[in-house]
Design brief:
Length: 293
């Protein structure tokens, strides 16, 4: 086994003259849950398609579970459960027929897992795909991805088009059914806060480039927002050491830090003359807006 579940070096793909992803260097530890995050059009789906061997890279290389997805695309897809943004089912098939078709391509297919999931997801085997709601299609896609006990799960915008209740059910299913196995999960989404409880690593893509990649706890420890309250109003000459940005409004100044130190930063801020100091935890969406926009 290699040191990393996913490892890329200079990975990139271009459509014509436009680079969708470029110079992507990413390492994903085994057993981690990585959020590949960023706005629509950032290059998330292109990255995943290269990792799954569905799209050849224009430059660079990748390893997925120790396999090259260009040379060993079938081997990669036989070991990775993949839930695409667009499911691509045959509308005229039934649920059971669809399961039968997919299971024929997986020697490791586990009918026990399939049966448990089908009951848990309340999937009627005789129902036609054309009759399924978006939420039921998402459940079927997850069943197909999990029933051969894959070594890794890759989810590309898996909750797209689902209502909030269906999204919550889908995410809780992932947590309950797969996360406890200790296997690697890569989930791509622009819904940053939806998956925050699932993730332990994050990678932010913007315009095809990797802005950062690190453990989520480290990121949340580094990026903080501090509210400084001044009794006589914010001084015009206010200087906040170490702050990435500072916005003043009346008696309050809001400073954002991207290298916050729990001991050192508050001590340094004691000298700015504020009567109160409030340190705020930021959500993933807050971090994206404050630091990566």
């Amino acid at each position: 086994m290699t040191d990393w579940a996913i490892e890329t070096h200079g990975l990139g793909h271009r459509f014509g003259e436009v680079w969708a992803v470029r110079d992507l260097d990413l390492k994903v530890p085994h057993g981690s849950v990585l959020g590949l995050l960023g706005p629509n059009g950032a290059g998330k789906s292109t990255t995943i398609h290269m990792l799954m061997g569905l799209l050849p890279p224009s430059e660079g290389s990748a390893q997925v579970l120790g396999r090259d997805p260009v040379k060993d695309d079938v081997a990669v897809r036989s070991k990775v459960g993949f839930v695409a943004e667009q499911h691509g089912f045959y509308e005229w098939m039934s649920v059971d027929e669809t399961i039968g078709l997919v299971s024929a391509y997986h020697p490791d297919w586990d009918q026990g897992i399939r049966g448990d999931l089908q009951r848990e997801f309340d999937l009627d085997g005789s129902a036609l795909i054309s009759e399924l709601s978006k939420g039921m299609r998402a459940r079927l896609a997850l069943l197909l991805a999990l029933s051969f006990d894959p070594g890794m799960l890759v989810l590309d915008e898996p909750t797209g088009g689902l209502d909030p209740a269906a999204r919550r059910t889908f995410i809780e299913t992932i947590l309950g059914r797969y996360q406890e196995t200790g296997k690697t999960i890569l989930v791509s989404s622009h819904l940053l806060n939806e998956f925050s409880g699932l993730l332990d690593h994050v990678a932010f893509l913007r315009e095809g480039h990797l802005d950062l990649a690190m453990p989520l706890a480290e990121l949340q420890g580094r990026v903080k927002r501090v509210r400084l309250v001044f009794e006589e109003g914010v001084p015009e000459s206010l200087s906040v050491p170490g702050a990435r940005s500072v916005k003043a409004n009346g008696r309050e100044a809001v400073a954002v830090f991207d290298a916050f130190d729990a001991d050192e930063t508050p001590r340094r801020l004691e000298g700015v003359g504020a009567s109160r100091m409030l340190i705020e935890e930021l959500t993933l969406e807050d971090i994206f807006v404050e630091v990566l926009r």
